[in-house]
Amino acid sequence: MIDLIKQNRFRELKEYVNILVQLAFKMGGYIRLMAKNAMDKGIYLSDMQCHQVNPEIRDGLQHFINMLKNKGDENKSIANLAVAKVQISHAVPNLLQKYQIGEDMLQFAESYENIGQAEMSIKIYQGIMNDFECESVKSSSGVFTEISYIDDRPESEIEIFEKAKHSYERLTGQKVQEPKRVRMGDNTHNFS
User: CA 11, CA 15: separation in Å to the nearest integer?
Assistant: First the structure.
């Protein structure tokens, strides 16, 4: 009898978790849509008085993700929550540090990898590497491979780039060809 009660409670808890995940996913989509409408008007969603989004929602979603990670066998739910968190992060980019959005994107890519969506993960990792590349490389034509590029990114952004690069290389089996970079403040200039 006690086992039957435990099974029923477990099933009820699973249903409750599924409903919360669905609501979070829909909330993320709605917030993304509101942010797009605000950007179409040339303003950030967080600047609109009638539709302000509290970035602390991200913290709640992360707490929920962490709970599900500890529970195990919730990869699809975690992926849906990671999507919602990324949508919210992209809706309020002016309230976050760039590395925070990058961490959310890494979690998003990893969660898709965990549900067997390797191709989508590869695309996400490529996007992260592009977004977290130093500006001098992004704005160059790439024609002059012998020059070194100034890398003025903060360490937190370099870490995001490196994690995405490592995961991309692991998934594709391809080595990413990187340009020569010189860190601002480095006394060791490599102009070979």
Answer: 6
Burial (0-12, 13-18, 19+ Cβ within 10 Å), 188: exposed
Q: What residues pair up with 180 in beta bridges, in sequence order?
A: 148
- Whether the pLDDT of residue 186 is over 90: the answer is no
Residue 31, amino acid: I
Query: Kindly report the CA angle at 109 between 106 and 111, in degrees rounded to 5?
Result: 105
Distances (CA, A) of 90 to 7, 114, 157: 39, 22, 16
pTM here?
A: 0.84
Q: What DSSP string runs through 26-43?
A: HHHHHHHHHHHHHHHTTS
- Looking at residue 149, the DSSP 8-state letter turns out to be E
Classify residue 49 by its DSSP letter: S
Q: Taking the CB of residue 90, how many other CB atoms lie within 10 A of it?
A: 18
Average pLDDT score over residue span 63-88: 94
For residue 27, is pLDDT > 60? yes
CA distance between the termini of the chain: 75
